Amino acid sequence: MLLVEGVDKRFAGLTAVAGVGFAVARGEVVSIIGPNGAGKTSVFNMITGFYAADAGSIRFQDTELRHLAPHEIARLGIARTFQNLEVFGDMSVRGNMEVACQCRSPVGLWQVLGRTRGVCRREGEEAARIAELITTVGLGHKLDLQASQLSYGEQRRLEIARALATGATLLLLDEPTAGMSPTEVEDILALIGLLHQRGVTIVMIEHNMGLVMRVSDRVVVLDHGVKIAEGSPAAIQGDPRVREAYLGEGME
Amino acid sequence: MIWKRAWPWFVACLAALAVVPTFGANPYTLHVLSLVGIYAIVAMGLNLVFGYAGQISLGHAAYFAIGAYTSTLVTMHLGLSFVFGMGCAILVAAALGALVGIPSLKLEGSYLAMATIGFGEIVKMLLVNADSVTGGPAGISRIPPPDVLGWVLSSPAQRFYLVLVVTAAAFVLYFNLVRSHYGSRFVAVRDSAKAAAAMGIDVRQTKIHAFVFSTAFAGCAGSLYAHVNRYIAPDAFGLGESINFLIIVVVGGMGTLLGPIVGAAIIVYLRETLLALKDYNMLIYGLMLMILMVFMSRGLVGTAQVVLRRWRARSAARRELPVKRSAEG
Amino acid sequence: MLEAIQQIASGLAIGSVYALVALAFSLTVRALNQINFATGELFMLGAYIGIVFLVTVGLPVWAAVPATAVAVSLVGVLFEKVAYRPLFKANAGHPSRLHILIICSTIGTSIFLQNSAMLVWGAQALPFPPVFSAKPAEMFGVIIPEEYLWVTGVAVLLMVALNVFLHGTWTGKGLRAAAQDREAAALMGVNLGAADSWTFGVSAGVGAVGGFLIGAMTFAYPTMGAAFVLKGFTAAIIGGLGSIRGAIVGGFLLGLAESLVIAFVSSVYKDVVAFALLLVFLQFRPAGLLLKPVQRRV
């Protein structure tokens, strides 16, 4: 489904990512792990078009993504969340979701201005979908609150719901549990399981090893911008190179 | 769905305004009310740019002028009807808006403000200097009154009805846009361009849409202004007027649905009443602006919303309190 | 040819004033990323307060210039406390709204100051007492009015003083640190509130000296700020908005460009030059000549 091959990224001479490649099959949950500064988020930014890769190729369902803009990539069906929250704070939770709903099949401006029957019907369908998705992430009772009034964990869940509302088939989650309490982590774990059952393909960057080991089909390990290991969670846990990369960081 | 709650209010307001001329309002009052409608149209368009999409323009007087001059020249020199003139005004203003907006909207904040000021000043210079077409600094007088389907609207009351109808139509379009799911994307671009792009929104295009929409509205209002006022001159279309538009939107409440209309009513009324103070007129205007920005930065409608929300929350809490007590007891 | 050299001399004199207005702009932009639309009115106040010090108080020129700068600086500080800080505090979380509010509030201030000046000193232009001798001086065989040299000299002196202040004093270093990274500066013990007041004060003072110098060559009139504000801003954009060196370079370049157009084309197009340069730079090189362009993808 997603094929990343030999991508490089340099910032003013500093190499952030060098020759990283991995493949993700439909329906998989793949985790990318590695110490801070390993280039994990840079890989995400290259897949979603926020950074231009200096070399290599990124293909999604046989479409080359390297020269596409972020919004074009999103319309192909790749949605993401951000490490530092990026909810639309001045908008209601509902408004956040409405924005995402139009991702894959935008309405025409003229139809909106004239408010045609088609637009009314679509908005009715979207409202139903929003209600369904937002209940899935457990924010059903907060639909009309301002997004900036939500707690940190709730904003993270809103971001996931919003990414799902785009109708994406591939979901990139950047540290979905950062700064969360253990009970909130359990909620996220259940949510990922649920999405997995529905057939959504997930790639996530995560530091919580417990979570990674429990939900991932495969794990990719980056260190200093280079892929040092890839395999099943069990194999990764036993890999000496991975232990070395994490030395001093206390991997269980 | 969005109209379900709004349309009774909308019809009631229109009906209330429609009976104003029959209650013996004098021509001056009707003229001032027409001006409120005209400025409200400009402000609705600009609110999309300032309030929703979070961009700045200090050159909208130029599009207002382009609408006014286009419509005037089309009706006076080509002898075509006002409705056609207004159509041309809207198209020309929108086309110029696209021409200026596409390169300029890659700029941000202060840079965008200055680029739009520069464009506005150039248009004003052209109006002053191309005197064979525009009549130069003296402007154009004796513009024909508007005509609709061969019917000439010669009295202030008839022109008031014309402005009312056009303003209502503009409001319908504006309402459809900002209250639809589609409208959320403008705020999305303002709040987080990054997340908006990740949701499949073309950030640049969205800003351009908002800008062109607002210039089309300004062109439409300019055409009305020319035929209602029946006299236009470059002086009325300078930086001062662009600033005035900005102030209407901000005083009404940026990013609020009704802010542009409330702002237009307040500012037009203020300008008319402050005229009596002669020398102190602008001094007080400036001072009030400073005070408003500091104490009411959300504008009148925005502040009213906050007060209303707080009041509702408080009364809701009061209603819940006895229930809790009885539960504890 | 001789006429051209005279034009260049006048271009340098006017350019030095443009540079001062550009500096006034750039100081607030680089520290707070906000344009102060009242910069032109502080410039105008410089001319009027200058007349007050020279005529009413009777100070000699060498004392009147710094006195004017200090007096208008205080107006700038007051402005920061009254019209800037409350807005900044209330809307810190909404950058795009803050930006538009600051524009409105500074425009309100500018309308207020302009009309106050009109009430106090009248709408007519007020003549300056003779400050710099207008008698021609001969340099390298060319006759140049002496006041051009004085104006350029005072402006350059002020730029040097500003540079010494920013690089050589503790306050100046604090201001530079705050302009680069507010959070880091605050951690290092810079009082950000005081730094903002200083920024507005210094910016107002620099602009005011520009107004004093223009007034000394021509008159003081209430709308003189509006006439110079766009020129000063264009100069700042040419050099790179927010850069001190850029403002100076941009000011002199714009002054020279205008004088060359007058000398070789026609004085009618003098004002078009500034607008044309403004738009060309904004479209093709918004970062100006001396700043590195920033590349962004979204």
Outline:
Chain A is α/β, with parallel strands linked by helices and 252 residues long. Chain A contains 10 helices and 10 strands.
Salient structural properties:
A: 252 residues, six-stranded mixed β-sheet, four-stranded antiparallel β-sheet, 10 strands, globular, B: mainly alpha, two-stranded antiparallel sheet, 14 helices
Description:
The complex is a heterotrimer of chains A (252), B (329) and C (298). Chain A is built from 10 helices and 10 strands. By secondary structure, chain A is an alpha/beta fold. In chain A, the strands form 2 sheets. Chain A has a 6-stranded mixed β-sheet with strand order 6-7-8-3-9-10, sandwiched between helices. Chain A has a 4-stranded antiparallel β-sheet with strand order 2-1-4-5, covered by helices on one side. The longest helix of chain B is centred in the C-terminal third of the chain and has 30 residues. Chain B is globular. The mean pLDDT of chain B is 89. Chain C is mainly alpha-helical and 298 residues long. Chain C has 11 helices and 4 strands, in the order H-H-H-H-E-E-E-H-H-H-H-E-H-H-H. In chain C, strand 2 and strand 3 form a beta hairpin. The chains are: A alpha/beta (252), B mainly alpha (329), C mainly alpha (298). Chains in contact: A-B, A-C, B-C. The interface between B and C is large, with 44 and 42 residues.
